[in-house]
Amino acid sequence: VQLQASGGGLAQTGDSLRLSCVASGRPSSTYSVGWFRQAPGKEREFVAVSFRNAYTIYAESVKGRFTISKDNAKNTVYLQMNSLSPEDTAVYYCVGSSSVIRSNVASQAAYAHWGQGTLVTVSS
Predict the structure, then answer these.
(1) Please, what is the end-to-end C-alpha distance for the chain in angstroms?
(2) Sequence-ordered list of residues with C-beta below 8 angstroms from that of 60, at least 6 positions apart, any chain
(3) Using one digit for the tens of pLDDT, what is the confidence trace for 35-60?
């Protein structure tokens, strides 16, 4: 599985951005997909995941502002980010997993497939 993320850029506080991640090598409907992020000087952290059955889990810090969705026909997963704040500034990584479960969604080790990051910068 190869994952290619895009859509990052510069935004202002309160703006919206949508990240995209195109998957290849295997249909995205056959595994769970999600997003992690890493802010400058901080550890990488879980953002959101969409399971094969479309059930979703979000980090508390983004709940209500971010929405993860999948278009299996396009093998693409999206992260719609609304009400952005400078705290959302980070490199965002698309991830895929055949084995992630609800209890380990926040563990990087649960995801075998990682895309390259896309940088989101939010200015105040």
Answers:
(1) 37
(2) none
(3) 999 999 999 999 999 999 999 999 99
